[in-house]
Amino acid sequence: MRLSPGDLGETVDLDRVDLWDPRLYSDGDPHAVWRALRAKDPVHMQELADGRRFWSVVRYADVCRVLRDHAFFTSERGTLLSALDVGDPAGGKMMAATDPPRHTALRESLNRVLSARAVEARRDVLLQPVDRLLEPLLAGRSTDLATAAMDFPMDFIGTFMGLPADDWPRLAKLTTMAIAPHDQDFQEGSSQLTLVTAHHELFEYFSRQLSARGGTPTDDLIGHLMRTRIDGRPLDHETIVYNCYSLILGANVTTPHTITGLVQALMDNPAAHRKAAADPSLVAGCIEEGLRWSSPASHFMRYATQDVELSGHRIEAGSALAAWLGSANRDEDVFADPYVFDIERRPNRHVAFGFGPHYCVGGALARISLRMLFERIFARIERFEPAGEVRHLASNFVAGVKSMPVRAVLRPRP
Ligand code: HEM
What we know:
The chain has 414 residues and is α+β, with helices and mostly antiparallel strands. 46% of the residues lie in helices and 13% in strands. The chain has one domain: CATH 1.10.630.10. It contains 16 helices and 14 strands. A 5-stranded mixed beta sheet has the order 1-2-10-7-3, sandwiched between helices. Strands 4-14-11 form a 3-stranded antiparallel beta sheet. Strands 5-6 form a two-stranded antiparallel ribbon. The protein starts with 21 loop residues before the first helix and ends with a strand. The structure holds protoporphyrin IX containing FE. Protoporphyrin IX containing FE (HEM) binds next to helix 4, helix 7, helix 11, helix 12 and helix 16.
C-alpha cells in the first residue's frame, strides 16, 4: 500500500469511498481517503452491495476508544472485515477474539514467554533470520526484499513454536493467503477458496502438531499453551489450535511490511539513513517511526454491544466498526507533520500495535527482531537503491508490499 497520499490537494468524493475494496490498497490511495474522512466524516457508514454495513472510524481518539472499551465494543464476533457479520467460531477461544476477563488470563500466560525480557534471553534465535535476510544483499546481489522479508518472521516464530523448518515455506504462503485472498499472486482458486484453503490447512496443521505431542508439553510456545491453566483447567485442543493460528498469523503478516515500509522510507529519506547509521541511539526511534509509517495492520474490527455514541454518531447495538490504525497514525491532531518520516519524532504514540487490552502481545518480539535487523543494516549498508517496480498487496487488512527489488550499496569494511 502506498504510505503517503499522492497529492495532498486532491479532493476525494466521500459518497464513493470504498474502504472494503482490496484494490484500493494495491492500486489506489487509501491515505488520501482516510485524510478526507478524518476532516469531514470521521465516523463513516459504508454499505456493501450485499447489504452488509460497517462504520469506519478514522480519528486517533475514536480508534483508541473503540479498541480500549471492550464492554461497549466486543472482539468476540470477529476482528477482521473479511469476516464481516459472519460470526467468529474462535470467539471466546482465540485470545484476539476474546474479551476480558477470560482474555486477561490467556494474555497473562502468553505475556510471560513473549515479554521483552523473555525475548532478549533468546536473541540467538533471532540472529539466523537476520543473517538469512541480509545474505544476498551483503553478497552484492539484487534481491526482492518483499519476498525475503516474508520469510523473516517465519524463521523465528517457527523456532519459537517448535515447528519443523521444512514446513515454514508453506506456512508463510498460507498466512499471506489468509489475509490477502483477493491478491492474484497468492490465490489458489477463487478468493473464497483461497481463504477456505488457508484456514483449513493451518488449523489442520496445528491440530496435527498438537496431537503429535501426545499430551507431553514441549519446550516451545505450543508446549506453553499446553501447560497453561485458566481457573485451574487446561486449554482444550481447539483453543490451543486457534491460538497457534493467531500467533503465526500475528507474526507473519505484519513484520515483513514494516521492513519494506522502513527500507522504502530510508530510500526516500537518505539523510535519515545516514543519521541512524551515524548514531546507534537513534535506531529504536527509527523502528518506532517505521512502525507508525508502515502501520502494517490497517484495521481491526469490533461490534457494538449496546447503543453507544461516538463522535456525535449513534452506533446501534450489533453494528460493526472498523478502527483504521493506518489512519490514526497519520492523524494531524496527534502527530505534527504526519506525512513526514521523522526518526526523531517525540512523542511517537503510534497505534501500529493497537491500543488497550489487545495491544500486540508479540510487540516485544517484533521490536527486538526489527532492531537487530536494522542495527546490522546500518552497520553494513550505506544505502539501498531500487532495482525494479514496487508492487502492493491487495488487502484491506494488511498494508503490504509483495514485490520490492532492491540492491544495497555497502559500507567500506574498516
Ligand atoms: C510489526 C509487527 C506487528 C504488528 C504491526 C502487529 C499488530 C498487532 C495489532 C494492531 C494487534 C491488536 C489487535 C486488536 O486490537 O484486535 C495485535 C495483536 C496481536 N498480535 Fe501482533 N503485531 C505484530 C507482530 C506480532 C508478532 C511477532 C506476534 C507473534 C508473537 C503477534 C501476535 C499477536 C497476537 C497473538 C495478538 C492478539 C493479542 C490479544 O488479543 O491480546 N504480533 N498485533
